[in-house]
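ok trying this again, last paste got cut off
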Amino acid sequence: MSAVKFYLRKVRLDRGGYDSSGFYWGVGPLFYYESEDGALTGHLRAIDRADARERLTEKYATAQFFR
């Protein structure tokens, strides 16, 4: 299985748990991920970027990340 490269970014949420589009996510750190080809996308809860990378690597064993 070849490596899958992901973009990973923290989603900014306001104090009420809403993102900039007005979508409600609840409170707490949230990350968005997308594979280089756009085929794999999603959101996950993680304490920080390192935790998000670890959780995504558990889901996709060959995951690599852009800086």
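PB: full thing came through this time. The first strand starts at residue 4 and ends at 10.
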